[in-house]
Amino acid sequence: MTQEQMLDQYIGEKGTPEREEYEAEVRKALDDYRIGEAIKAERKRQGLTQEQLGERMGVRKAQVSKIENGKSPAYSSILRAFKALGAKTASIDLGEMGKVALW
Length: 103
Fold this sequence. Notes:
Blueprint: H1 3-10, H2 17-45, H3 50-57, H4 61-68, H5 75-84, E1 91-93, E2 99-101
Antiparallel strand pairs: 1-2
Helix pairs in contact: 3-4, 3-5
């Protein structure tokens, strides 16, 4: 069974509300992961620990970990992380994964 056949059988065929919802959730999870990876890479590039970034953001280390691991970060937390890292632009280059525009 191909992945497409499995999705058709267990989630629903393309174009159905169930399949559209599933695919939207997958896209969001991937976006959250990519943003978290960008934040983690920049934090490490700057030689910061999660605790130090958290201090700059005004949050605890656990919140930084949650953001970096793509655990449904709030948009406001993402913005605070980028600002705490000194991001001056509205987009972050994720290399092969493309660019993420935030503002």
